[in-house]
Batch of 2 targets.
Target 1
Amino acid sequence: MKTRVLLLSTLLVAGCSLLYADDQLQPLHGTCSIAPSTEGDRVQFKLERGDCGEGKHHCNMNDSDMPLSNFSGFTLADLKNDAAHVDAVIAAEAGKLTCSGTVHDLTLSGDFTFVPDAAFVAHMGKMGFTGFDSEKLEAYTLFHVETSWIQALQSAGVSGITTDNIIALRIFKVDPPYVKSMADLGYANLPAEKLIAFRIHGVNPDDVKQYRAMGYQPNADELIQMRIFKVTPDFIKRMQARGLNDLTIQKLVQIRIFKLAD
């Protein structure tokens, strides 16, 4: 009897969990528009949900320059067919977003529907990533976050990848080749947040090689600091040309902070 009660309780909990998960993955709806960009291989893509009027809350908006290749069922030629109905689709592992509307004055305007993919959530769960909702999956879809890319980052030694910082990794192009290029220079197994900071501040392998050639061995934090305060290889060379050949990284940073080189 106790076994049957325990089994029934387990099934009820599992059922509630599935219902909760389904409740978190409801389709999203709103308005959308697609217009030409200044770059021929991209378009201006805008999504809007909720009341975005002045002083209003609960507004979600995406307004970005997006590669034309992200869409299926849509080409730039469609924007020249005034009054034509067009369905522009972005299909990714995390879900499918469809912008359906009518073309007017070189702009497709209409409504969008985003349908999250529960299979993607299940796959990510097996990889140790949880806490998804439809809004997050919509962002994953827009930035084409794929499980293979995440696995490649993990295989490259990136630690500290979370459901929340995956988008930042994608936006700032922390990809396996970049991770490997930094690892080859001695910066291996860095956490995701550190690599994001590298990309934000422009830390690159070429500069590191030049620092090394000038006798400097900056650690990860010093690399970020040097980029923030513009302690570039050219700046160091200018200091050396003035006879300041034994300056430490901290001294170089201080010169920049207090504008002593001016």
Target 2
Amino acid sequence: MEKIAVFTDSACDLTEEDIQEYGIKILPLQIIYEDRTYRDRVEISPDEVYENFDKEVPKTSLPKGEDIDELFKNLIREGYTHAIGVMISSGLSGTANSVSLLAAEYPEIETFVFDTLNLSMAEGIQAKRAAQLVKEGKSFGEIKEILPALKKNVDTYYYVATLEYLIKGGRIGKVAGTIGEMLNIKPIISVNEEGVYYTVDKARGAKQAYNKLISILQENLEKTKCKVWVMHGGAKKEAVAMVERIKDLPGILSLEYGQISPALGVHTGKGLLGICVERITGK
């Protein structure tokens, strides 16, 4: 009889309640400072990372190899026969590839590494759905077939308060970035079908950027009903205000807000605000 585990990485932004309820295992990404490396959300919280941005902006890296090894050893000890890893986009991180390579060292457990081609709650939604399918009694093979169809139903859109960190990270040209800063340009970014960042729209100033995020959400709601998450990086006040602005829009099936992993925030800076949608068809 199959005993199926579901695991993901800490960029998924799932709440602790969801993680506990569905028994999802988490591989922490690494948050790297000059004097120390921390396991994301285990040894350092998102708030601590964002609050320290003025002093030092850390780097990020894949989960430690020993953490991946320990995950598989624990799964085998706990009697799991199969595992499904729902991972951050391979276009943004080498995590999925690293997990795949190490999974091959543990033939005792059959592992399917699923590349979400996304991150944050768009990744977390897919991990939670995999865990729900396990609870529903779906087989390993059935879940492998169902998961790819989820990708097209989830999207995430982010307003970036400053171009400074995108320039530093080489994700935008220095000249274009400097001009953008001078003009108070605020890009709205998302993740494309290849799982890499792209610019959905641009706004002049924060107010217009928030309005554009709401317009994008409304475009989704015109097509179908949606579950919605407002996500922030060191911008809780703005996230709460956004929830208030959109809570009465028709077609929203559920509305939550949460903190974005610093694994995303280090590339975009403090003040990040995003909206994640899961389009629910047939309801």
